Every structure is written in C-alpha cells, then in structure tokens.
Amino acid sequence: MRADAARNSGKILRAAREAWAEQGPDALLEDIARRAGVGIATLYRHFPDKAGLVRAALDQSFAEEIAPAIERALGDDDPRRALTAVLEAAMSTADRERNTLAAARNSGAVTAEASSPFIESLTLLARRGQEAGLIRADLVADDLPRIMVMLMGVLWTMDPGSDGWRRYLALVLDALSPGATSPLPDAVPLRSPRKRGGWPV
Fold it and tell me: FRET partner for 67 with CA separation of 20 to 30 A, picked from 58, 76, 118, 167?
C-alpha cells in the first residue's frame, strides 16, 4: 500500500472509531468520510462495505491497545499477573470501543476467527498460570472465549467509562484461582455462532 493510501486508511479508521463513539454504531459512512477529510468514494475504495470497515477498525484498536499488553504479558514472569493485565487491557479497550463493538455485532464482523489471536494469547497465559500452580487446573481452553463473552456482557449494563467492569473481572479472577472450592462440571464443546451478528458482545 502506498504511503498516502496507508495514511488515508488510518485516518478513515480513526474517524470511524470517533464517529461511533460520539454518534453510536449507526453513524453514517458519509459522516465518517467527512470527519476523515476524504470523499465517500475514497472510503469505499479502502473499505467496500461496513463490515470490512468495522473489522479493520477493531484490528487497529487491537494493535494499538491490546497487542502491546499481550507483548508485555508474555515477558512477565508472573503468569497470573500477566493474564490479569491482558484481561484488564481488553476490558478497558472494549469499554472505550463499545460502539465499535456494537457496529461490529450489527454488521456481522465479530466472529470467532476475528477474536482467535486474542483468545490464543489468553490460552497461552492461562496454561502458564496452570503450570505455575496459579490458575485452577480444571480450566480448559474453551472456557476462555465464554468467559470473555460473559465479561463483555456486563459493559451494556453500566455507563461508559464507569470502570464498573473491574468488579466482575475481580470475581472471575477469584474463580480462576486454584483455591476455588467447587469443582467445575464438564465443559461442553464450543459452538461458534454462524448467524449474523456473531458473538453476542
């Protein structure tokens, strides 16, 4: 991609995230183009449909906010602290980007495939925690995307920016402790959503 095209793409994605944050997930593409300082034709050249725009906006947010947290966590010698830091980064980002997530859900851009790099990182950190005796041994990989759906669900019950999600993350982290008293029932296979809207976040 040429440098000017890359700049335009980045401007469009930032404008989209700002527009969704201010106007909600149904912000018009024409408004996003104006905010980015480009014509609507330029926007469509980069992103032929809204689902592609939303997916790219989520990728940009992930690269800026969550990927650095994962990189730091992978170098942390305390796997429980590392897992906590990544979950906090994910929830903090989701809180700020909740309208981007809503736009993604509405356009079908939130899929198991889109979230797989993040879930793979969580799985690695959780496994390290289990090996160190810091995460309960009966946690399985399929639990992690479900836990994230549970945590994301609380965002819609509170005002943006309230940090109220921290209470529920603390409850989840306590439940992941090896000292948790109740054994878990058997896990059922993870079923990826196929209907429009994808994961219910």
Answer: 167
